[in-house]
Amino acid sequence: MQLRYNFRLYPTPRQRQALARAFGCARMVFNDALRIRQEARENGLPYVSDGDLSKRVITEAKKTPERAWLGEVSAVVLQQALADLNTAYRNFFDSINGKRKGPKIAPPRFRSRKDNRQAIRFTKNARFSITTGGKLRLPKIGDVPVRWSRPLPADPSSVTVVKDAAGRYFASFVVEVAQQPLSQVAPEAGIDLGLSAFAVLSNGRKIDSPRFLRRAEKKLKRLQRALSRTAKGSNNRAKARLAVARQHAKVADARREFHHQESTKLIRENQAIYVEDLAVAGLARTRLAKSVHDAGWSAFAGMLEYKARLYGRVFHRIDRWFPSSKLCSQCGTLAESMPLNVREWTCPCGAVHDRDVNAAKNILAAGRAERLNACGAQVRPGPGLAQREEAGSLRGAA
Hints:
40% of the residues lie in helices and 17% in strands.
């Protein structure tokens, strides 16, 4: 499987100028190609092929005075900009034709030099390399210092240089990694993701929600007020915007580190993990939107999924319509309603449930039932007595 390894870059002032030039050239090629295809469609002309597009916006454009500066950057960077455009069109067409799952994809849009994220990509054809001194050698840019936090497991097939909104530079390597199966363990876990507690496991363990954004709100408000008082286009506004972006980057980094630590721990301790397929996009339109985004359920579930595949564990998502909170994990009785303010409830069978722990137990039981479906078992058995050896009987991002 392919994984990305990200490392911080520290380019010199001259290298930053070269990177800015490469960002601008890639953006210009992308926009020129998009404009040509849009004009062809408006004029009723055939779709411009990839070869013709490359010839017009790169090969021939370099010979004109208006685009002669395209020759100052690596040709691979320009070709990869066209590859990004082709990928965007392919995703758009697949979305229209129903080949792509999920929400509809909008057609490609023009890139702006004011975009918060700028990126260029080098493939093996560009002959990028890592020097013996540990620097990243990029064509027409130079040897860029890298902060290596860990060694690369194999030779990378490509590297993407990214400048984020906070003005930081990163190198993102794509590396082919073989599976690294861990030794078999007995425990399995159902996970109920929430806001009061970030995650509740079927064994009763609760992972507290760090609420990184809420903790940084006071400072963010102060920085945002300072930004709103500056004049548009001024140097002070640029400095204030950078201060806000850096604070948001700190929050995002802390949240990502928390997700990595908890997901790795869960994968190592459990042979199988089951979570709900939460409708995060819908929850993000409610009054809980800020808390939902602060928790980052989708990113956490994505980490669990790829780490389970890497380490030979089982990961499964339960249907979002499964009534995990309203179902008694002891007798299978389904409650008529379960408002969010009800954190503990008593079933007619006499069982007293913590809402989140009960939901996690039901998620675990439903995940086990769906795994048995491959052998002909029913996907979702109706309410019934729970097996004694199981944690329950039945059962995104925040």
